[in-house]
Design goal:
- Pfam families: DUF4840.
- It is a single chain.
- Helix 2 (79-85) packs across helix 3 (89-99).
- The chain has one domain.
- The protein is α+β, with helices and mostly antiparallel strands.
- Strand 1 and strand 2 (56-66) form a beta hairpin.
- The radius of gyration is 28 Å and the shape is elongated.
- The protein has helices spanning 8-27, 79-85, 89-99; strands at 43-53, 56-66, 70-73, 104-113, 118-124, 128-134, 137-146, 151-154, 159-171, 174-175, 182-191.
- The chain contains three helices and eleven strands, in the order H-E-E-E-H-H-E-E-E-E-E-E-E-E.
Length: 192
Amino acid sequence: MKKLTVPRFLITVLMVFVGFTLSSCLNNDSPEIPPVKMDDLKGNYKGKLIIVQGNSKREGVKDFKVKKDTISFAEFPITEIVKTVVKDPAKAEAALKTMGKIKYELQYAAVINTANNVIELTLAPKTMELQIPVDGVNKKTVVEFISKQKGYYVGLDQTLRYALTAEKITVDGTLVTPYEVIDYNFPFCIKN
């Protein structure tokens, strides 16, 4: 009786062909990440906020809205600013309750970085003017903000990241000294 055998060369070629076929199928299954567009940036956000002043650090969650060229806060966190101006903790808490919600708008210019699939934000913070009530008198307080780095909207995970610093505070025309800067870091913000 004769045995029917397939030459080893044919089996090897067949295995290599099947391997290439399966490999090409696997490579095409990776998800496509769409390129980022300027309109992706607009919307309502909820973000992690880390406020650092000297050795003091406070974390929380903050809501804000991003429009064409503005980041708008319906309630900007001013606790550290007020406590810098009003040293007495009880008076600072009373002032915060009296002042209520403070709105703030942060201007920005944006460009798309196609190589990294991000939108880069050059922040242009404006000064914030507050009237802080202490002992029946309003202290005119001016806070000067700066931005030390660019902000980013990342297309891969669709998050916004940025930071700003309260560099100087002036009360009734006098610079607060000594003063430790207040850093507002938004490391991870997502759309609602």
